[in-house]
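Quick one before lunch.
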Amino acid sequence: MFSVGLTGGIASGKTTISNLFAKLGVPVIDTDVISRKLLQPGELTYRQVCAHFGDAILGANGEIDRRKLREIVFTDSAEKAWLEKMLHPLIYQRSHDAIVANSRADYVLVVIPLLFETNFQSLVDRILVVDCPAEQQVERLIRRDQIDETLARKMLARQLDNSARTARAHDIIDNRNETADLETQVAALHQRYQQLASA
Ligand code: ATP
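Model of the adenosine-5'-triphosphate complex:
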């Protein structure tokens, strides 16, 4: 089963691009969605997080308050390591299962925001990086999430440099332009991936 991992910095355009692949009929697996599912009631990992952080981590509806959890791991590297050690192997396994479950498709796209940081390279056959200038990421982040510039720059500073990602990519999508141009780039890559998958 041929799989393509899509990665890129925060607000670089991963969702926008994965939606374009989905429009072409490509199954899309999103590791963020899997990660969110693992924190929902009914999952063993939900109970482990509740036991570790206590009831203070829960919102009024009994669900894990993801904003609170984000704040904790943003400021405490030991807690971040604890959470990642628990979640990452499960995210890898569930992504792998989802790839196998889609084996009738030509290929699948797996959106992995932290592909290099989590060493998920072995999950996919090919790595597609979406690249755009950091200044544009900041602009898009402020506009989309209604946050101030200082926070946007702080979030960006905690991430891998865009150049570190593109240096390890098989393919790169340049997302400094308008969305129409993205469609052309995605269509060309789609054709290439179909050829590679059938080779
Ligand atoms: P995150 O890392 O936070 O999950 P992301 O990489 O999935 O973000 P998107 O949500 O796709 O990024 O894009 C970030 C914002 O920038 C969105 O509001 C999106 O509509 C906008 N955007 C992305 N690409 C373009 C483009 N080529 N032209 C105009 N706006 C764009």
